[in-house]
Amino acid sequence: QWPCAGRENGSTQYLHKYSFTRGRGRFEPAEHVEPSESADREFPYILVTGRVYHQFHTGTMTRRSQLHNREYSQSQIEIHPEDAGKLNVVEGERVRVASRRGDCALTVTITDRVSPGHVFANFHFTESPVNFLTVEKSDPVAKCPEYKICAVQIEKVAA
Hints:
Largest sheet: 6 strands, mixed, barrel
Strand order of the largest sheet: 1-5-2-4-3-6
CATH class: Mainly Beta
Number of domains: 1
Distance between the termini: 53 Å
Shape: elongated
Helix content: under 10%
Number of helices: 2
CATH architecture: Beta Barrel
């Protein structure tokens, strides 16, 4: 629909309302490719990175908002209750999350939104650059880095 130059110059509100130039749309199946890194003895957890509702990208704009910061003001790592018990960590405690490429400190949130053996961390906060932990491999077609998954170890930060 965007951009629409305006109907006065013969433009249409929707670019491909009825069909594409080549006819109907075409679906291309994507082949599943295993992640380039999996959990092992040294790095026993799979870190999944992503967004949270109250922040956007690296937070360059949303972190200026008191409303957004009140709801989500720091980098957090979501850990399943079973894993939190094994790690002997509690809600709100700081942990060091390390991969083969680096480490950062995050605040623990205990939740069953993640499966045992998996943890989730948001990437909106430069103070805890979670994407630096991820694999440096890129997709061969889209050239996007494999930001979403990597193996990590987790330990308490000394108080």
